[in-house]
Amino acid sequence: MQILVTGLLLGGTYALIALGLTLQYGVARIMNLANGETLVAACFVAFWLFTVVEVNPLIGMLAIAPIALALNWLIYAGLMQPLVRRAKNRGMLEVDTILATFGLLFLFQGLMLLGFGGGYFSYKFLAEPFLILGDSYGLNRVVAFIAAASVAALLYLFLYCTRYGTAIRAVAVDPTSAQLVAIDVPRMAGFAFALGGALTACGGTLLSTFYTFNASMGVIFTMKALIIVIMGGVGDVRGATIAALILGVAETTVASLIDPGLTLATNYALFILVLLFRPQGILGRASA
Question: What's this model's pTM, rounded to 2 decimal places?
């Protein structure tokens, strides 16, 4: 039981990170390989706010998220939009943006290594026991899970209960048809890319409250987010959430019962199984 609860708490934070990539790829059609660097940058900002300015990470997230949204909007407008305009088809767009974000990955990682070095960072926030069904868990993990679930619920309400959210989902399903009903597809794609970056930054902020991080670990979280997105089905918010929880439980089970060094191998094993038996994703439907 303790493994299951710990895995779900971890998976909740993973879900927020994967939802960011889901929006960026599902709506803007951009596989952002620098997604993990946004997460790490948010970890460092939260660390600085807490240790230097003494700002609670949950309050700091209210500032980090809009800053990440603005920066990702600038990245889309300055770097991605010219590639979108130049691309003659979806395949060309994906190749160009993968190469561009691959370069951004090393640029951002290099800047963070220059600023913070290669050492590991952590800070103590709500590092005290919290009882669930008689078992003890870190209060910081529980608070991070509740905060992640709250952000995910707000995202769901935005996507399914507002006209703007409906327009974003329409672009995700079929950009060409969305244009026929007067939806500004480039604007929706840009906003989805920026919103995805903000969600990833929220995930990084929450992760920093209980996770030891360094400037080089962004690529690991990019790969985890990518695996979750494929497992959940590209553009499927509900599928990505379920896949993140499954990944969190699987990682915790392997780390607790076998060897913590095998968690990444477990991720890839799940990824291969989904590709073999559910290539359309956990909740997706096979194409006719």
Answer: 0.88
